[in-house]
Amino acid sequence: MGLLAKDKTSERNIGFVSLYESYALYSEGEYGAIPELYVRPEYRSESVGLMLLNKASKFAISKNWGRLEVTTPPLPEFERTLNFYQKNGFSISGGRKLKIDINANS
Questions:
Q1: pTM for this structure?
Q2: CB contact set of 53 (below 8 Å; sequence gap of 6+)
Q3: Cβ proximity of 15 and 45 under 8 Å
Q4: Positive or negative CA dihedral for 96, 87, 19, 4?
Q5: Which domains does the chain have, with CATH numbers?
Q6: Residue 39: Cβ within 10 Å count
Q7: What is the pLDDT of residues 43-98, one digit of tens each?
Q8: Could you give the residue ranges of the DSSP H alpha helices within the chain?
Q9: Strand, coil or helix: what is 16?
Q10: How far apart are CA 35 and CA 4, in angstroms?
């Protein structure tokens, strides 16, 4: 699922958030995940990201998800991103995100 933010004057796409549903025992069923939230640099600090998070939360409620999760890289250049999520109600839940490239291991 993807949600777009548009500039009211130009109708230009200025941001988006993507969501998907996942399942886990720790969440006692379905939950939502945000793999990406992006706002064009010239529109940052204008509440576009907050508006997208609010729309994502409303979608989560409509799906009866008990939680939304997002992962930010543990790098200094993502400190502003981490602060944005924390300022808007997200809390650090621990763990590290890992991946494996399936094609590389075949």
A1: 0.85
A2: 17, 37, 88
A3: no
A4: negative
A5: 1-68 (3.40.630.30)
A6: 21
A7: 999 999 999 999 999 999 999 998 999 988 888 888 999 999 999 999 988 777 77
A8: 48-62, 79-87
A9: strand
A10: 14
